[in-house]
Amino acid sequence: xxxxxxxxxWLLLVPALLALLSPRAAADPxxxxxxxxxxxxxxxxxxxxxxxxxxxxQARLLAARLKAGGNLQDLFLYAIESLRAAETERAIALxxxxxxxxxxxxxxxxxxxxxxxxxxxxFHAVAWLRLGEQQNCIQDHSADSCLLPIxxxxxxxxxxxxxxxxxxxxxxxxxxxxxxxxxxxLNIAYMTVGEWPEGxxxxxxxxxxxxxxxxxxxxxxxxxxRPPAWPTWACPAAWSWMISTVTGAWT
Length: 251
Known about the structure:
Elements: H1 2-21, H2 23-27, H3 32-47, H4 55-67, H5 72-84, H6 88-107, H7 114-138, H8 160-175, H9 180-192, H10 239-246
């Protein structure tokens, strides 16, 4: 019975495929109803708001808003969307600009709140880590690029972005030593420059046996907590809260 059903399906499919592949089918213009449908779909697309996952589109929208005036919130969102759209160097330049504005504002007695400043520093740190990934793991890929712990051919040749990420995550850990996400990403950054685990300061180091090669099992014993599955910057559920928090009014 199964063979009979399969034969019937093929008997129905083959003529349809032959009709689609025939020169006459390719040459026939689309029906008026098809053209009207395409126009209607295009109109609907223009009328719909941008998807929150369309980072390229969001970045273009924010760039236009900034060109027309904009504010600090637009600037920060533009940096975030640039990072999410893999325009990492542009994102870094924008984060540096925001940090300069924050420093100048603090000198005048105002500026961002501690929470806002912390989140800005988080995004800036991960942008450098991301740039190192783009320059090495993507443009200079090897089988070791995707394995933990990163070593051998997975070590970055262009190390400057990871060095900057190390500097920034170290500074964040000095302020927030309890943050496991910062510690985890600091160790990853040290791996990318070939200095893990010995090069990591002892109080931030994750022991090698906690990251066994070619396995996803984490170390759950001892004093080293389990690394989070999603660092704060990457968790989609946290985006709306983070953006609303960090883009509040800078007095």
